[in-house]
């Protein structure tokens, strides 16, 4: 496909987005080996034009050039913004200048963001949500409230006449391929999963809520904000999102709670504690506990294990009044997780002061883990028999809490 020409994706709906084949890191955290695209769309009707999302600021020339090939700015009646992250909102200020008569359509949660991103208090906008619809000429657009996918203000919409879902970032991939449609581009499956894992998985409860809305629709095409437009088997991708958002390890029944015990050890002391804690946790029938040595685990495996865990225990020695780097690496993976509902605690052997354990707890609290009010298990140097028994009891009590024992937890 020619990068400079708009492409009609269904009758009177055009791709007017921009391709970014050279980007290699997105949003600091994502690798983009295949580049990306900032998808935007234009809907033409006999009563005027709707612009659906915009592009990153650096790419606005392409975007405006494509609009100008399809209509004049005074034909634009609405600018529908599903998501105000700058990769999609970058051209809004200039678009509003060129089409000042256009009304911006956003979710209610986007109101303060629209002002902040445009630095313009005088934008004509209207808020929309599920059950509201817009009819313009031959097209009817139903709005769908799909927040936290992956910002609070995100939404989707559906063009009734074309069975077309504008999904926002949902079902996106950082995968540049100018052939654009899923049935024409190369194999983007790795990029689709990678995008889900990094962008949507921390919000999988909200993904499931969005799917409940999508399930009421007959969807023939998904026009996402990044990567291929999906038209061949849209339900294949919808079902992948459902599966990934519901996933549990195959060998563990849904009646079992999973406790993962990560530890780091220099002289085997913290490891001995971890093993006693493991025994205590395992003494509760419905608990499936596992031990992981942080010195030898790959990051992606850590993330997957953390995601599946109901309870997370982290054990570390204190070295130079701090936790060693692998512990911080583990804690930094938490940004990829849905933390709500996960219970956390910490333990470790120490020589002088043992600050590392409390540092872990502080981090867990700031991430909104449920941290039960039991004393973290800290033992000076080599644990003796009595101390190992305390570790066993600590593991058992933690497991009872993960299992549903009622306790008051201060989440602040
Ligand atoms: Fe593609 Fe969340 O911006």
UniProtKB/TrEMBL annotation:
One GO molecular-function entry: FMN binding
Superkingdom of the source species: Bacteria
A matching Pfam family: ODP
InterPro entries found in the cross-reference section: Flavodoxin/NO_synth, Flavoprotein-like_sf, Metallo-B-lactamas, ODP_dom, RibonucZ/Hydroxyglut_hydro, Rubredoxin-O_OxRdtase
Domain Flavodoxin-like residues, every copy: 259-399
Family: In the N-terminal section; belongs to the zinc metallo-hydrolase group 3 family.
PANTHER family named in the record: ANAEROBIC NITRIC OXIDE REDUCTASE FLAVORUBREDOXIN
Protein name: Flavorubredoxin
Organism: Arcobacter ellisii
């Amino acid at each position: 496909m020619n990068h400079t020409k708009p492409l009609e994706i269904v009758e009177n709906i055009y791709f007017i987005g921009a391709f970014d084949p050279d980007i290699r890191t997105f949003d600091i955290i994502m690798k983009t080996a295949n580049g990306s695209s900032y998808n935007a769309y234009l809907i033409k009707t006999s009563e005027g034009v709707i612009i659906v999302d915009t592009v990153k600021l650096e790419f606005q020339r392409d975007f405006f050039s494509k609009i100008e090939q399809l209509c004049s700015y005074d034909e634009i009646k609405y600018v529908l913004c599903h998501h105000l992250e700058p990769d999609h909102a970058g051209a809004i200020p200039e678009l509003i200048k060129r089409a000042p008569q256009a009304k911006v359509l956003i979710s209610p949660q986007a109101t303060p963001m629209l002002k902040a991103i445009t630095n313009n208090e005088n934008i004509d906008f209207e808020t929309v949500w599920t059950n509201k619809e817009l009819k313009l000429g031959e097209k009817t657009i139903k709005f769908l409230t799909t927040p936290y996918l992956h910002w609070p203000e995100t939404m989707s919409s559906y063009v009734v006449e074309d069975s077309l879902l504008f999904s926002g970032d949902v079902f996106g991939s950082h995968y540049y391929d100018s052939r654009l449609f899923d049935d024409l581009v190369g194999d983007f499956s790795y990029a689709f999963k990678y995008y889900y894992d990094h962008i949507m998985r921390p919000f999988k409860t909200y993904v499931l809520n969005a799917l409940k809305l999508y399930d009421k629709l007959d969807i023939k095409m998904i026009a996402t904000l990044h990567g291929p437009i999906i038209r061949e088997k849209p339900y294949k991708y919808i079902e992948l999102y459902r599966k990934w958002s519901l996933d549990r390890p195959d060998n563990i029944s849904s009646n079992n709670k999973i406790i993962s015990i990560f530890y780091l050890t220099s002289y085997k002391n913290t490891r001995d504690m971890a093993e006693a804690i493991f025994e205590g946790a395992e003494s509760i029938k419905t608990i499936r506990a596992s031990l992981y040595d942080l010195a030898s685990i790959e990051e992606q495996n850590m993330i997957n294990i953390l995601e599946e865990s109901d309870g997370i225990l982290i054990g570390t020695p204190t070295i130079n009044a701090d936790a060693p780097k692998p512990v911080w690496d583990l804690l930094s993976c938490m940004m990829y997780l849905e933390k709500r509902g996960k219970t956390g605690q910490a333990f470790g052997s120490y020589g002088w002061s043992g600050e590392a354990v409390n540092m872990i707890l502080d981090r867990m609290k700031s991430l909104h883990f449920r941290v039960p009010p039991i004393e973290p298990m800290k033992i000076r140097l080599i644990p003796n028999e009595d101390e190992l028994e305390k570790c066993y009891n600590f593991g058992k009590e933690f497991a009872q809490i993960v299992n549903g024992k009622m306790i008051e937890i201060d989440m602040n």
